[in-house]
Amino acid sequence: MRKIPTIFVRDWDGDPKHVTSVRNPECAWVFAGEGIATRKYDGTCVMFDGERWWARREVKPGKATPAGFVLVEEDGETGKRVGWEPIAQSGFAKFHAEALAAADRPGEAPSVWAPGTYELCGPKINRNPERAETHVLIRHALAERVEVPSPTFDGICEVVRRLAAEAGAEGIVWHHPDGRMAKIKARDFPGNGH
């Protein structure tokens, strides 16, 4: 999974944890009303390639990559390498196994997992902002749609903060029909307390 661009430009000269109200030109299509907005779940990204499960992994500059790491891209701003590592060696292996086991109910045919990316959420993932009772896998392709009535800085900020407060959502991901994606997280906004 390639890094998804953030819809507003980061404040690289001041506080790079937060965004400014300047629209990212790479994401102009979002502000033009193209694409579909969906909930960004707050867990950890995993992928099923049709045969094997993988965990998303970021490797900081100067650190060694784990065995079996598949590089997807290197972030030019931070120097981080982003890619996939086999799920079995990741720190999330146990929780992923619990999610798979819960989905395969005794006495029924095993679940059929579609190739693609999923969000692993649950009690032991990121302090459980999604408030899941057990570990679960949520397919990104089936993410809950979000209504964004005003595609402005303030309008988007309001929707994202409401989703975070009411449902523990991490933010919003927009999906363009041509495959492009764009995102914003609640913690990207200044004064959000994160």
UniProtKB/TrEMBL annotation:
Protein name as catalogued: ATP dependent DNA ligase domain-containing protein
Species assigned in the record: Thermomonospora echinospora
